[in-house]
Every structure is written in structure tokens, then in C-alpha cells.
Amino acid sequence: MVTIIKGISAEGKSIPPTVIIKGSWFMEDWENENQSDSELLLLSDTGYSNERLGIRWLEHFISFSGAGPQAPYKMLLFDGHSSHTTEDFTIKYWENHVVPFEFPSHMTHLMQPCDVGLFQPEKHYHNKAIQSALRGGATSYNVVSFLDDLADIRDKALAPPNIISAFVRSGIYPPNPAYVLKQMERYNNRRKLKVNKTTKSRDEPSLP
């Protein structure tokens, strides 16, 4: 079980990823020559983030984004995960001139750039990496394999044009709320159509 936390900007830039791995001990073979030594590897019992790891990620973000008490203010957009709303997390981002903005509930599929334009390319290149490993004779694809391929997957999926496009398609930058509202209308229309088909199917008489 692995969780990846990314940080991207409307300029098309990204900070090194944070990788949360399920486990209690770091394994020596997790390190490889493809890594830049800027990735943040963390452990948790579940493989998911938590309050303690959320603070570690925020420190990572502050370091690589150039934030700080004397730096210009930056806006941080994030989802409503509990690790983003703790008192320690809140104090640290204000101390470092980071202005928080939480996405509205149930709207990340339309408004969060990673959801809108980056997760799909990452999935695509991840699948290609798995297929390449299997064609090369590998009998399994594990954490070691993933970490070995991570840099290549990230470089392709998080290419600057992809990141910029994700911010455009989410209506965040340039600011374009009409784009998101149009996507919401399409989404609601699809849901209504699905509900109508289900209702019609239930109302049809069954054969004796």
C-alpha cells in the first residue's frame, strides 16, 4: 500500500513527491539511482497519511516552494483530509505565509487540478511501467519496482504542459468559474439520465 502526495503550481511546476508506504521499517532496497534524493519517503501503519505525516508534508512543501516567514504569501489549495485541519498544521502554514483554501466538499473531481488532469496520465504511465516490467521477465511488481519507476512516471505525467492544462480545466487559473459550472451541469445531467433509466427499468412489468 502506497500513498503519493503531490504539490503543483499554476506555473507548471511541481515539488518532489511525498511517498507514504505501509510498514514499520525502511528497507534498504527502496533507494535507487533513479531517485533525486529530494523525495520524502515516510511510513505509516496503514499506508495512508495522518496528522503527524501531514505536518511532515507541510514542512516539505514549505521547503521546496520557497515559503517562509519572510517570503511572499502563497495560496495552498487542498482537500478536506483531517490531517490538513489540525491546530499544528494551521499554525505552521500561517507562520510561513501560506494561505489555506479548502476545496468545497464533493467537488474535487471538478476543481482539484490533480483529479481533473493528472491522475489519469499517472495511471496510464504506471500501467505502462508494469507492462514493461512484466515483458522484461519480472514475476511481480512491488514497492521496490514502483519506486524505481516513480521518477519516470512523474516526469511524464507531471510535465509542465499537463500541469498548466489541469489548472485551466479546473477553472482555477486563469480564473474561469463558468468552466466548472458547465462541467457540473453535464455531470448532473448524466446523473439524472442514469436515475431515469433505473426508475424506468423498475417500473417495467415483469414477465409472468
Please give a structural write-up.
The structure is a single chain. The strands form 2 sheets. Strands 1-2-3 form a 3-stranded mixed β-sheet, covered by helices on one side. A two-stranded parallel ribbon has the order 4-5. The chain has helices spanning 51-65, 87-95, 108-111, 113-135, 143-157, 160-169, 177-203, and strands at 2-5, 18-22, 40-44, 74-78, 98-102. With 208 residues, it is mainly alpha-helical. Helices cover 50% and strands 12% of the residues.
Distance between the termini: 50 Å
Name the CATH class. Answer: Alpha Beta
Instruction: Give a quick account of the main beta sheet: strands, pairing sense, barrel closure.
Output: 3 strands, mixed
How many beta-strand elements? 5
The percent range for helix content is 40-55%
User: Could you name the CATH topology?
Assistant: Nucleotidyltransferase, domain 5
- Number of self-contained structural domains: 1
What is the H/E string? EEEHEHEHHHHH
- The helix-and-strand class reads mainly alpha
Cα gyration radius (Å) = 20 Å
Report a brief summary of the structure.
By secondary structure, the protein is mostly helical. The chain contains 7 helices and 5 strands, in the order βββαβαβααααα. It has helices at 51-65, 87-95, 108-111, 113-135, 143-157, 160-169, 177-203, and strands spanning 2-5, 18-22, 40-44, 74-78, 98-102.
Chart the SSEs and their pairings.
Elements (H helix, E strand, L loop, with lengths): L1 E4 L12 E5 L17 E5 L6 H15 L8 E5 L8 H9 L2 E5 L5 H4 L1 H23 L7 H15 L2 H10 L7 H27 L5
Parallel strand pairs: 2-3, 4-5
Antiparallel strand pairs: 1-2
Helix pairs in contact: 1-2, 4-5, 4-6
